[in-house]
Design goal:
The protein is mainly α. The protein is about 75% helix and about 0% strand. The protein contains 8 helices and no strands. The longest helix is centred in the middle third of the chain and has 34 residues. The protein is globular and about 55 Å long. It starts with 7 loop residues before the first helix and ends with a helix. It comes from Hymenobacter polaris. Pfam families: DUF1361 (PF07099).
């Protein structure tokens, strides 16, 4: 039985891992340089956000690179854990809310810093979802695969709202489940009194879904061009 590291899947994945690694290294370097120059820890929290964004990618990659296809008894709990942490990746886009002029730092520098982190969040999210989408499609078919991806992005958009506006995080499902459940139920039972909840969720859902579909189509175009060549 070949080891996972020797599998063609991982060999094909190496360029993506290198690209993600370089992109993350750029974010780390921008944050480190800002701290070294200003002696302020203003954007160091983005390192934690990037770590949380990498968790769903690590989980989905581990499932996808397993030597054998994961069985349902493993796929289901890992999939639920993946879904719990998945919103942390696109959440990084909302860190653009922190962009404002700061003395001693060029505005463009902070823009580049936060945009690089937001980009990494999106790329980690889409790379992770591609893996999970493929696993579901292989087991249950094309339409179930796309339904899974669509629902996952919708729940992620709602999770981004919970994190950005209500300040919940993935750990609260264990440490603060009653408050989390209460706030979710209130927004479901009283949608018109919580129009911002559903406005943010629907708009962000649409953005993520269109962006994810675009990434998939770009991959297909690349394959088609290579085949033509």
């Amino acid at each position: 039985m070949p080891l996972p590291f020797s599998s063609p899947t991982l060999r094909h994945r190496l360029p993506l891992l290198l690209a993600l690694g370089l992109s993350l290294a750029l974010s780390f370097a921008l944050i480190a340089a800002r701290v070294a120059i200003t002696r302020q820890w203003q954007f160091v929290f983005l390192l934690w956000n990037l770590f949380l964004a990498a968790i769903p990618f690590a989980l989905s990659a581990a499932l996808h690179l397993a030597a054998r296809a994961p069985k349902a008894r493993l796929l289901l709990p890992v999939g639920l854990m993946w879904l719990l942490f998945f919103p942390n990746a696109p959440y990084l886009v909302t860190d653009l809310f922190h962009l404002e002029p700061h003395p001693g730092v060029p505005y463009w520098y902070d823009l580049a810093l936060i945009m690089s982190c937001a980009w990494n969040g999106l790329m980690l999210a889409f790379a992770s979802l591609l893996d999970m989408h493929a696993l579901v499609r292989q087991r249950l078919g094309f339409w179930v695969g796309w339904s899974f991806a669509t629902v996952a992005l919708g729940l992620s958009a709602f999770g981004v709202y919970l994190g950005r506006y209500l300040r919940f995080n993935s750990w609260d499902i264990l440490s603060n489940p009653f408050s989390l459940f209460y706030d979710i139920v209130q927004r479901i039972l009283h949608p018109f009194h919580n129009w911002q909840t559903w406005g943010v969720t629907v708009v962000f859902w649409a953005f993520l879904l269109i962006a994810y579909a675009t990434v998939r189509l770009l991959g297909r175009v690349e394959v088609a061009v290579e085949n033509e060549g």
